[in-house]
Amino acid sequence: MATAYxxxxxxxxxxxxxHADSLSNEENRATYGKCNNPHxxxxxxxxxxxVGGEVDxxxxxxxxxxxxxxxxxxxxxxxxxxxxxxxxPLFVNQVPTTENLTKAVFDVLxxxxxxxxxxxxxxxxxxxxxxxxQGQ
Length: 136
Ligand code: NI
Fold this sequence. Notes:
Elements: E1 4-16, H1 25-32, E2 41-53, H2 65-80, E3 83-84, H3 98-112, E4 118-124, E5 130-133
Parallel strand pairs: 1-3
Antiparallel strand pairs: 1-2, 2-4, 4-5
Residues 16, 35, 41, 43 line the site of nickel (II) ion.
């Protein structure tokens, strides 16, 4: 079977504060620097989703783009866009670093997309930083 890939980019604006409850205030400041500031800060994340699979003989597509958009909207953007990530249940017990956000987006999308389609999620935090996760 020949696998083809399709990638799509979405924007997600959210705020966060990096703070680990298990560390002291001094350790948090040393670990996260200004990202530990009490009032948090925001990012305009770019979330890149790559899906893969056999090209459908009838439609000529790996995945229907409108369906993918609808799934990402419901599972990811409706949940995280214009929110404070620290208040999401997923981040009550883990620091909302972009590493953890990337994993969270992957996990909710893996659950929401047809089995075997999701290849990876890549999140750009700034123009110089990006994170990628492709599951186990
Ligand atoms: Ni940040």
